[in-house]
Amino acid sequence: MIHTRLRPPTMADVARLAGVSHQTVSRVLGDHPNVRDETRARVLRAIEEMGYRRNSSARALVTRRTRTLGVVASDTTLYGPASTLFALEEAARAQGYLVSTVSLRKLTVEELSEALDHLSEGGVEGVVAIAPQRSAVEALAELRHPFPVVIVGSGPGVDIPSVSVDQYLGARLATGHLLAAGHRKVWHLAGPEDWQEAADRAAGWRASLEAADVEPPVLLRGDWSPLSGYRAGQELAGWVGRGLTAVFVANDQMALGALRALREAGVRTPQDVAVVGFDDIPESEFFAPPLTTVRQDFSTVGRRGIALLLELIEGRPPATTPRIAIEPQLVVRASSYPYAAQSEGVPL
Known about the structure:
Distance between the termini: 80 Å
Number of strands: 12
Largest sheet: 6 strands, parallel
């Protein structure tokens, strides 16, 4: 006869099968050291045999810990925010936490307030906000919340714990690389004005030129998309032969569009114009030519962001507001050096 279980097994069922007390099962589940190895093995066999699964809701009532973190994000179709979100979720799982994500179209005060209320009702212990726009950071600063909040993707100047890649340094690496290659001036295609990352990259570009006693040329601006890069590339092509030999583009997607526009105008890269991007998206090494770019370590951003949030949750706040900056890495490919092009088999 086949017996059908009408309810899931409980801790009491496990205790009965293993021949131990309810408290002993609880100690085994909590990995308590004061349990004999033989007893622990018997309890674990009973758990496996019965298919027992711990009731997370009941556990949360006892421990007042849900082991759930919240993430608020927007623009997750873009490479940077999407990579950051994945890294945060992966890092949280590695620490034994679930993640509840709220994706918003815009990070306004009203939408952020609703998102934080929603996450609070869901019992999250803390929240990471992917907030690359300055307006989003200002909105978060206005809100009050019952749990710790950490920002990722924002630069210096925020009074909220934050973790970000050093965009300013990344821009200096890119611009300095082009100047060291012998280019007398470097142009810049920047990202949207409201993005702190775009502002930091433009500031690093400008500082590198000023340190080399070079007056920065006019700054062009795009919206992170290949189309905006293509349109800017058409404008840049008109300056070839009039002093334009190098361009630092604020992300790889815009660089893709700019490369096509330059190619269509008969401008060779890197022979006529060297191009450097930012992000090191997976496709960048397959551009024509392969793109020199600045690599962001999103995995480290995720780990450090989750680690910082857990420190705050566990009541170990630092004396000052932590602002963790992670160093980027310049990845040199054929788009910026004629001899790099030769080494990768790109005809000059």
